[in-house]
Amino acid sequence: MADRAELLLELKQTVSQCIEEAKAKLHTLSKDIWSCPELAYEESRSHDTLVAFFSQEEGWKVDSHFKLHTAFRATWGAGVSEQVNVGFLCEYDALPEIGHACGHNLIAEVGAAAALGLKAVLENTHGKLPVQVYVTVLGTPAEEDGGGKIDMLSEGAFEGLDVVFMAHPSKEDAMYLPCVAEHDVTIKYHGKASHASAYPWEGINALDAAVLCYNNLSVLRQQMKPDWRVHGIIKHGGVKPNIIPAYAELEYYLRTPSRAELHVLKAKAEMCFRSAAVATGCEFARNKYDNMLRNAVLEKLYETNGKALGMDFTTDEDVLKNESGSTDFGNVTFAVPGIHPYFYIGSNALNHTEEYTVAAGDDRAQFFTLRTAKALAMTALDVLLNPELLQRVKQEFTEAKLKEDRTLTGEHTELSDKH
Ligand SMILES: NCCCC(=O)N[C@@H](CCCN)C(=O)O
């Protein structure tokens, strides 16, 4: 046991050192992505930058345009049977008009750095590990809009992975932040144009329908559970004041803490869409984001490694219980045990702001980004050196998934009965 502890400490020190030695090229990688923000499913340049990065590294097998045009896979390992397959994810899509305001360039850097660090260590363990290891990096586009991981899950991209890691920039270090189920919906109203002054009575005003829809959803909030969210915009409301709008379009996000409740909120919201106008079209997005299936074993390991590296995990109950967004990594956690911690990047700016875009491209973010990569790679080493630990991770995943599935069927039935 002491030998394993000593080996683990030695390997963790080596992983840190290897990531430090690669920091210049990792920073260049991140900055290249940050300086050319691309929207969901359109991340061609970022895809090419990451594919080139791994292609120039020795020993990686790189599959460009993997399952999705802007997704990729890079793998390293013997490819023998009875191996443990560790996955690291890279996100790299930006937001409209404000660029990398969620720091996805840093997510890509963390994934690449952790994979490089782990691979460098594994190359030199010379059979000291109890298992053979395969390292898989998946470039997963379109997290902010559409859910590239969900498309890739349905294409089998995550099959064979034993554990998966990524980390998300935030304004604090956290092993986990609430992550809720979410579904995008676009609501379209079609009317009939007419001169708004000469003969408005000949028109059918699609914008009126959109306004009524907006107001219906606003009053729906009174009957929503306090932890449900409905928020959206009017994307198209007409072209000129003197033309009765023949077309109007809204985009909304519907959110509930669990997958089971989402269908109830969707049904309520859809009644708001339809009651705003007789003839309406509403299209739910192809992909529905799941809430996160947590893994306490992995979170604890990450916390221990993060604290050893100087992370100051938030204990702010308001943040830990209330702040929440959604991520397609939630869907991944129902297929593979994994963690999606958050990391401070040297700024108190809030995600999805122009200030955060600046912070994500600032050199000051690099220390915190590389520290996070080290903590992830060390957490991977924890489970690789201790097969019993990996079994506990998988056992917890199986039990949590079973419990969620029961909730999904049970709550679905119960909630359906009520509505
Ligand atoms: N917890 C990470 C949040 C990342 C994020 O902002 N995701 C978007 C996803 C929107 C999908 N339609 C969000 O608004 O939560």
Automatic annotation (TrEMBL):
GO terms for biological process: proteolysis; regulation of protein metabolic process. Transmembrane segments: none annotated. It holds the Pfam family M20_dimer. It comes from the Eukaryota. It catalyses: N(2)-(4-aminobutanoyl)-L-lysine + H2O = 4-aminobutanoate + L-lysine; beta-alanyl-L-lysine + H2O = beta-alanine + L-lysine; beta-alanyl-L-ornithine + H2O = beta-alanine + L-ornithine; N(2)-(4-aminobutanoyl)-L-ornithine + H2O = 4-aminobutanoate + L-ornithine. Gene3D superfamilies: 3.30.70.360, Zn peptidases (3.40.630.10). Residues 185-276 form the Peptidase M20 dimerisation domain. Keywords: Carboxypeptidase, Hydrolase, Protease. GO terms for molecular function: carboxypeptidase activity; dipeptidase activity. Belongs to the peptidase M20A family. PANTHER family: PEPTIDASE M20, XAA-ARG DIPEPTIDASE. Catalyzes the peptide bond hydrolysis in dipeptides having basic amino acids lysine, ornithine or arginine at C-terminus. Postulated to function in a metabolite repair mechanism by eliminating alternate dipeptide by-products formed during carnosine synthesis. This is Peptidase M20 domain-containing protein 2. It comes from Collichthys lucidus (Big head croaker).
